[in-house]
Amino acid sequence: MPSERVLICGAGVAGSILAFWLAKHDFQVVVVERSKAEQKAGQGIEIEEPALKVVKLMGILDKLKERKTGEMGFNLVDQQSRSCGIFEVGGISPTGALELMRGDLTEVLYKSADEFANVTFQFETTIQSLRQTQDKVIVDLENKITKTTRVAEFDFVVGADGVKSWTRQLVMGSPEKLNCFKSVGAFVAYFSIPKEDQDWPYSRLCHFTDRRIVWMRPIGKESKITSVYLIHVHDDVPNLRRANAAGDRLKQKEAFAELYSDLDWETPRVIEQMMRAENFYSDELMQVKLQKWSQHRVVLLGDAAWAPTPFTGEGNQLAIIGAWVLGQELSRNPSPVAFEMYEKRLRSYVENAQSIPLGGYAPYIFNPQTAWGIWLLRTIVRLVSWTVRAISWMNLARMLPDKPQNDFDLKIEEVEAEVAR
Fold first, then answer.
1. CATH of segment(s) 184-286
2. How is residue 402 annotated by DSSP?
3. What is the CATH number of domain 5-73+98-180+287-358+404-420?
4. How many Å apart are CA 72 and CA 90, to the nearest integer?
5. Which of 59, 43, 52, 53 is nearest to 98 (CA)?
6. 125-132: strand order across its sheet
7. What global pTM score does this model have?
8. Is 35 helix (H, G, I), strand (E, B) or coil?
9. Residue pLDDT, tens place only, 266-319
10. pLDDT tens per residue, range 105-134
11. How far is 303 from 187, CA to CA, in rounded Å?
């Protein structure tokens, strides 16, 4: 007897993990993704508890460790490349113990799910339309290569297709109608450039006036490229906003080049190489806040439902945990009731995780507007760095508090019980 058919839109972290867990419970799963399978874009991300429990039980932890960037820590520098404070891996460092590039993580995840006979990945494929009946979702799927469209029926559809989710728009309406985008007042760009000797082994971040940041992160000791983040904390950059709205990559690059044109340190090198980068991505950072995450037989997952932005540091964790919970609830009750239980379990956890530290002012405090503010921040970071090193030298590291964990009911015994079912 055939099991329920589920369409997942998006082969990112959330979509691939959900496909894995649904496959273990004998669902027939189709995952569509607009990008190419080999696309390796994205930023560095970390996996920590409680999300780490999920990937451990997927049996992929060793594969993920093989893809670690090897970044040894974080180094705040000034325009002359002088260190203002180094923080080794772990503790209060931005560098986590399991740090990977998003492209490497998603590749491991989708290949793990793709090993199941009841999972099919279709890259360069998108939803054109969908309509729901009492017991089915009828979907028009278009292959971007062949330009052909086919009609397919599914029991459930999951939109795991990011902040600007097309699935969400088809089912619930435009972002304007939903009023679901909450700007955090920042623009970002991610891309890679050719590696130079100074790019290894620490990530290096340099502040500039008007809340501009250049952050360079190593991808691997043997890698020939370095990952770059440009972060501009500002709520009104007309040229960049228009370029982002149009999805015009060249205009986006030109807007960032103009914003960063007067800066020193490694910035001229970064901007020159940015104009040639093929894996360039830019956007305005938005949180997604919805009154409801599902409508009948269609449900949203990950950034499509609750994008927290990188300022919270919770996006990857929420994607992994959310996919596990949704898979668990669907396996218990393959009906729209599962979506209600999924939201009931996660809603408060997600809302807490969406909180930007320091009352929402963290992006402004850690990205000063003035030269004086930058000097003060560097001075504080230098003192904190010295304190951490002194404690380490005195063998008193155990006195430092552990990194706080979000309170969530993801007990290892519960996960193991689900795997054993």
1. 3.30.9.30
2. P
3. 3.50.50.60
4. 9
5. 52
6. 125-132, 137-143, 148-154
7. 0.91
8. coil
9. 999 999 999 999 999 999 999 999 999 999 999 999 999 999 999 998 999 999
10. 999 999 999 999 999 999 999 999 999 999
11. 17
